[in-house]
UniProtKB/TrEMBL annotation:
Protein's recorded name: Folate-binding protein YgfZ
This protein's record includes keyword Transit peptide: yes
Organism field: Stenotrophomonas nematodicola
UniProt xrefs under InterPro entries: CAF17_C, TrmE/GcvT-like, YgfZ/GCV_T_CS, YgfZ/GcvT
Keywords of this entry: Transit peptide
Phylogenetic classification of the source organism: Bacteria, Pseudomonadati, Pseudomonadota, Gammaproteobacteria, Lysobacterales
Length: 287
């Protein structure tokens, strides 16, 4: 397992909005496996995967990166924040399990549009308290770096935050605003492209809905990347020939991820009166 991270980092010291949630203790992996949609117990130490937390109706509360730092520690990277609220909600299900749930404000999440120094695919690289993740592909290299916060807090850069968010959308990673949480199944959000949920593991919240949709072939909608003019909002309707056919789930500048029917006509699309041009999603981010 790679451990030789260089100390310098030629990237952005902090990605605005990203927060960390740590699950620590002998039961951390078992608890995460029971609550989240991915197969956590099958994940090797020092590897990461995409995952999601669903409500009982199979609707997505949050999408995140789940890292198995060591045998007794699971770290969640929450790109859309809400770490305090999620920690509070998860705490209700701890019962007698031996674990603690902590928001890690002492660490920051940074990023770079360059290939990792040592991490590769799902395998992370470690140097003390610093973790490096490969969150890109050959077509769009990206590195995520989790490290202790420096003494001086870096200022957020709106341009950097937008560029990173747009790169997430290009890979088909849904970035969910508050109004889009608990609205969509993982299939509708295309989390199968990221290996973000399992239909083979045991029970977890929403598992019955996810499995039924998968095995009965009832998924009728999927994610589509669109280029639209600036100013649209999540929840906006996608129209074709004057009729609403779908909904915008995520927005980043002039890019949007919309949930649309699997089969639609080739006629032009629009959102809020603006032309919407379909774009291909980038592959290579499944973990």
């Amino acid at each position: 397992m790679p451990d030789n991270l260089p100390m310098d980092f030629n990237g952005f010291p902090r990605l605005s909005g990203h927060q960390l949630l740590s699950l620590d203790g002998p039961d951390a992996a078992a608890f995460a496996h029971a609550q989240f949609a991915s197969d956590v117990t099958a994940l090797p130490v020092r590897h990461w995967q995409w995952s999601a937390w669903l409500n009982a109706k199979g609707r997505t509360i949050a999408v995140f990166q789940l890292i198995r730092v060591d045998q007794d520690r699971i770290l969640l990277v929450l790109a859309d924040g809400e770490a305090d609220a999620i920690a509070s909600q998860l705490q209700r299900f701890v019962f007698r399990r031996k674990l603690s749930i902590t928001v890690r404000d002492d660490h920051a999440v940074g990023g770079s549009f360059t290939a990792p120094d040592a991490a590769a695919g799902a395998a992370i690289a470690v140097n003390g308290e610093t973790l490096e993740l490969d969150v890109g592909s050959d077509a769009l290299p990206r590195t995520l770096r989790i490290a202790p916060r420096a003494g001086t807090t870096a200022l957020d850069d709106a341009g950097i935050a937008l560029a990173w968010r747009q790169s997430d959308l290009r890979f088909g990673v849904p970035r969910l605003a508050a109004d889009q949480r608990e609205q969509w199944t993982p299939q509708q959000l295309g989390l199968d492209r990221l290996n973000g949920y399992s239909v083979k593991k045991g029970c977890y919240p929403g598992q019955e809905i996810v499995a039924r949709t998968h095995f009965l072939g009832k998924a009728k909608r999927a994610l589509q990347l669109l280029r639209v003019g600036d100013g649209i909002a999540s929840g906006a309707q996608v129209q074709q020939n004057g009729a609403a056919i779908g909904t915008v789930a995520s927005v980043a500048g002039d890019l949007a991820l919309a949930v649309l029917p699997l089969e639609i006509a080739s006629d032009p699309l629009s959102v809020d009166g603006l032309d919407a041009a379909p774009l291909p999603l980038l592959d290579g981010l499944a973990r």
